[in-house]
Design a protein that fits this description.
Helix content is 19%, strand content 31%. It has 167 residues and is α+β, with helices and mostly antiparallel strands. The N and C termini lie far apart (42 Å).
């Protein structure tokens, strides 16, 4: 039996992320979420929404906010490819996501994504705008693993139509 893409509501996708993601918890809000079934078992989820970075939120760019699998072969790349197809059908010109510096991006490359740049890795806590570094999830108080916010990230993208190039 092969892997099959299915639609998911945010509550179910977030529950899956809280149960299985290595370093992130649930996300608030989405444009759509999809899952991948391995037989009758949910083998992974993908949550897509508006870009977190305000300068990328131009109404034509979508961000993959979470991808999480139980390790089923090709599940990540199938989810990334399906997210790009859905985003294109919805009229988006570009889809982006981020990986930690320690992650290889093999699934993204397999799904036709391109590494764009190094991003993030700075604290949200600034002298003029103090922020508590504690982050919350939908189903719990804090992330279950050490917060990766200080680790540099890489931004990846897939251009879905003309006019979607990085600015």
């Amino acid at each position: 039996m092969g892997l099959k893409i299915v639609p998911l509501d945010l509550k179910r996708a977030n529950f899956y992320v809280d149960q299985h993601h290595r370093h992130n918890g649930a996300t608030n809000g989405h444009k759509f979420s999809i899952g991948v079934l391995n037989g009758d078992e949910l083998a992974g989820v993908c949550i897509c929404g508006k870009p977190v970075a305000r300068f990328l939120d131009n109404g034509k760019t979508l961000e993959v906010r979470r991808v999480c699998t139980t390790g089923a072969r090709n599940a990540c790349s199938i989810l990334y490819a399906a997210a790009a197809r859905v985003a294109k059908e919805l009229g988006y010109e570009r889809i982006i996501t981020y990986t930690l510096q320690s992650e290889t991006g093999t699934s993204l490359r397999a799904a036709g994504w391109t590494l764009v740049c190094k991003a993030g890795g700075q604290s949200w806590n600034m002298p003029g705008r103090p922020r508590e570094e504690k982050r919350r999830t939908l189903f719990g108080t804090e992330y279950k693993y050490p917060d990766p916010i200080e680790q540099p990230k890489y931004r990846w993208e897939r251009i879905l139509s003309k006019g979607g190039a990085c600015g």
